[in-house]
Amino acid sequence: MSLALALAMASALPASAGASPGASPGTSSGTSAGSSPIHFVSNDAEMQALLARVPETHAFPPDFAETLLGAGAVSMIEMTTAPGCLPCADLWTRLTQLRARYHWQIRTISREDALLHSGRLGLPWVGYPVAWVRPVSDPNRTIPIAIGTDHLGNVSRNAYLAAKMLSGVRPAVALRGMARFTGIMGIPPKSAGGR
Questions:
Q1: Number of domains in the chain
Q2: N or C: which terminus of the chain has fewer CB atoms within 10 Å of its end residue's CB?
């Protein structure tokens, strides 16, 4: 993956879709949802309130379904998760719907694998959930499609754009269409010492 793509992906992280200034449920460090890239939620009401503010994709390119169906045989989605993480369960539901429609493989990955994915792009590790698209045959080429849970239309559009990028479409073109990440994350698990 090119440095330009990594920088473009990194620049997409701070802009949180749908967050409105002054919103405070579940935000980290006591900042407003409009200024924080990560919105930690501890219950379903907080998560749904934040999701309600996120614009949902309804318009798709003409080759949308064809591209996703074709990419399903050669691409997969990897996702981080943690026990008791409400946004993880929510995103898993959306990815399961995407799998049913377009026949993509979906699997969970460990925190360590997610750190490697983030490190390759020069991105900070952000927590749970994060979803990545990669070619089935190449675990080192990854593109994040969701940081936090999101609407199915947004996740599907990002999977479409990732498939396009992985098949050779110039990254700058695809990144302009990439939906912003919501950053609606689960509360970080408390460390109980050594495992």
A1: 1
A2: C
